[in-house]
Amino acid sequence: MATGSTEGTVRRGRPGYDQETVLRRAVDLFNRQGYDATSIGDLARELGLTKSAIYHHVPSKEHLLALALDEALDGLDAVIAEAVQDRPGVSAYDRLRTAVRQSVEVLVAHLPAVTLLLRVHGNSDVEQQALARRRAIDERLSRLVQDAVAEGAVRDDIDPDVISRLLFGMVNSLVEWYRPGGPVDATVLADAVAALAFDGLAVRER
């Protein structure tokens, strides 16, 4: 994706900061204040730098947004890309359940970036590209749900598109309350989400 490309724009950081540190602080600030309401000047004050010094680290605020959104999307994209591949002896149901678990793990590992992704509204080309990638992920997930329904492993009285939206709606809602370092670790959380979702989706004997 062009949104995350740094070719020709990689800057060498000044002492005390590298681009990764600037990115982390920027994402935190975007999440606190909102991306549109945050200026390069705000980020400079957050880092204790002058506004002009920021440009020794990154070319623009939009570049930081692109890096953050690609960080979140690349993880989710990899999970779904693996899940939709047919593999001998692995059912669509098992691949779907694994995809949900791994999506939780991606969210936990990249919580600030995923939080930012879920808050963009398409107000720029970078945001539009990110939303297009999200839609593509949703479409592949919906097809995987359809495959699990066709196997007879997932109940067929709920529309597959609705199922996929509900599944990832549950995963995405974790950004509102989950905090790393709390009493529930990522593995336990992923298992809990998968169990709650799929026990409710399993076909029952009539």
Automatic annotation (TrEMBL):
Keywords: DNA-binding, Transcription, Transcription regulation
SUPFAM superfamilies: Homeodomain-like, Tetracyclin repressor-like, C-terminal domain
Residues annotated as domain HTH tetR-type: 16-76
Residue stretches spanning the membrane: none
One Pfam family matching this protein: TetR_C_24
GO molecular function: DNA-binding transcription factor activity; transcription cis-regulatory region binding
Entries under InterPro entries matching the protein: Homeodomain-like_sf, HTH-type_TetR-like_transc_reg, HTH_TetR, KstR2_TetR_C, Tet_transcr_reg_TetR-rel_C_sf
Protein name according to UniProt: TetR/AcrR family transcriptional regulator
Record organism: Mumia zhuanghuii
